[in-house]
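From the methods appendix. Each design record in this collection lists the tokenized structure first, followed by the designed amino acid sequence. Records were kept in a plain field format so they could be parsed without special tools. The example shown here is representative of the layout used throughout.

RECORD:
FOLD TOKENS (339 positions):
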């Protein structure tokens, strides 16, 4: 039996088409979110499909915006996002999606949303931020960037929180979960500065860049020559410290998670934060190499985390069942209307 099949069995997910949808989301997560996918392997098997559905959906939509067919226009991508939003509303209401291609991913997402009682507003905010990518090419300051990151990153942390479970009141853990989503995305923005420029976007706050005498033309020069400049290094160094501050704010939320979930998030926290170490060690050169955590470092982080997770499970540390979504009396998963 494969790991993927075992996860679905552990989660009690039945029905061939629904299982295929979860497997599709798992594949999207594995291919596009390798650092967090590694961390997810530390979770109890029955909790992994929900995380895969949420991250798989996010990566799928992100690809529609960032990796469209060559002939696709911004209007085409906006129409695709509108279609996904409309189909998600249909599926969440028990009505089949209009577009079979959307149904392939949305079946698992809708099932997860129903089971964990996730607010639809999270997904509306996410799609709104994806639409911003079609028109917004720069952000004047960190507050402006956070308007985007609420939908593109903070809500991801909020979506995942009920899947992981908490020992503290969820409303107490929520700000830290949102901050962790932002911290991960800020790290991606720093690492992918050159790649984003190639798409015509600058996600680095404009006021920080300007304070160091950096403008888009200088960033494009660095990308073109694949070489950093002193002023750009200084700006990136400041933004790495901003990112570290967000990680520090997010970190107390890890202790608020259920014991079996903490090793997963702690592993993701360490691995993503390690990307900042790689950027700093390279003297803030994000132009000649795309920084990533080595497989050895991932294994070094994941193996002890798995051991901690196994100890937590052996001590009866289970992720509490959600209070909304599904059959609260039996704890069984809903059928979701998809088989």
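DESIGN:
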């Amino acid at each position: 039996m494969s790991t993927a099949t075992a996860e679905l069995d552990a989660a009690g997910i039945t029905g061939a088409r629904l299982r295929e949808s979860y497997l599709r989301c798992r594949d999207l997560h594995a291919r596009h979110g390798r650092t967090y996918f590694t961390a997810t392997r530390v979770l109890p098997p029955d909790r992994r499909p929900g995380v895969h559905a949420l991250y798989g959906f996010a990566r799928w939509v992100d690809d529609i915006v960032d990796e469209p067919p060559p002939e696709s226009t911004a209007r085409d991508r906006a129409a695709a996002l509108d279609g996904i939003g409309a189909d998600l509303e249909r599926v969440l209401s028990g009505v089949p999606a209009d577009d079979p291609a959307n149904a392939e991913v949305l079946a698992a997402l809708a099932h997860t949303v129903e089971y964990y009682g996730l607010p639809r507003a999270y997904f509306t905010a996410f799609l709104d931020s994806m639409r911003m990518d079609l028109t917004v090419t720069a952000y004047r300051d960190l507050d402006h960037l956070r308007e985007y990151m609420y939908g593109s990153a903070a809500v991801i942390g909020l979506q995942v929180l009920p899947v992981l479970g908490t020992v503290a009141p969820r409303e107490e853990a929520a700000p830290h979960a949102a901050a962790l989503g932002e911290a991960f995305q800020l790290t991606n923005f720093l690492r992918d500065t050159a790649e984003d420029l190639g798409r015509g976007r600058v996600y680095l706050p404009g006021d920080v860049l300007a304070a160091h005498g950096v403008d888009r033309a200088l960033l494009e020069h660095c990308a073109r020559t694949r070489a950093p400049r002193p002023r750009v290094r200084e700006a990136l160094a400041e933004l790495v410290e901003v990112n570290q501050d967000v990680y520090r704010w997010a970190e107390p939320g890890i202790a608020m998670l259920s014991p079996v979930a903490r090793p997963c998030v702690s592993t993701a926290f360490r691995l993503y934060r390690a990307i900042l170490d790689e950027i700093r060690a390279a003297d803030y050169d994000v132009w000649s190499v795309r920084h990533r955590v080595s497989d050895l470092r991932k294994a070094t982080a994941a193996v002890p985390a798995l051991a901690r997770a196994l100890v937590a499970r052996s001590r009866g540390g289970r992720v509490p069942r959600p209070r909304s979504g599904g059959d609260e009396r039996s704890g069984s998963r809903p059928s979701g209307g998809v088989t």
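APPENDIX NOTE: The radius of gyration is 20 Å.
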